[in-house]
Amino acid sequence: MPTPLVTWLPIATRDEVAGRRHRQIEPLEAIVWHYTTGPGSPIPWLHQREDSVCWHFTITRDGKITQHIPLDARTWHAGGSVLDGRKNVNGRTIGVECANMGPVDLLKGDSLHPILAARSKRFTAAEIKAAGLRFGRIVSGNTWLMRGDLFIDADGSLWEGLSGPQIESIMLLGIDLAKWSIDYADAAFCYEKNHVGHGEIYPKKAPEPGPCFPWQALRDNLRHVRLTHVDKGSPNA
Ligand SMILES: [Zn+2]
Fold first, then answer.
1. 202 C-alpha to center of ligand 1: Å?
2. Which residue among 15, 74, 151, 235 has the highest number of C-beta atoms inside a 10 angstrom radius?
3. What domain range is 116 assigned to?
4. Cα(237) to centroid of ligand 1, in Å?
């Protein structure tokens, strides 16, 4: 697999704004995967923000990976999360945001294709298919709000799917950070336990990164990184 092309579009961290040296305050332990909950790219917002929320990487729907902050700097993406029984998750994690609506709540003013809008909030996969909406689009007024696939989970709730280029970039970034961590951070990111969803460590928030996140493929790729870079020749790798 090729190394991902990452665009560097830096912003100042809260530490820098306060005149402190930017840094992680503990060794890096995990990558926290998020979705943004918005219909567009979060990057313009991130660059104009007035609060201190920030993260290291954004993966937009076109698959572009943008890095905003160096890996040795603390970002503010994990809120009140608890990881391994301890708070201060921002000080020991890398934050990655995937541009994605997450759950599509029809009660919040967005409307669906009329065939689906006439039905209840919950749908079966057969209903989605029958409506010809594998590539369903959500509209707000007369404006196309997004063009992603809709995804239906086991409970019949609708989600915006992650795009194909986005999934590919999630994989490339995960692999690249795993290789980077072997050289610089004690191999943390080549183990699946060191990749967590924001929802796992902060259950009160949205269930990020959502049911479309390619966990199994990421696990398979991390195992490959371990086999080729860490556990060469070990039968138990
Ligand atoms: Zn989050």
1. 8
2. 74
3. 106-160
4. 31
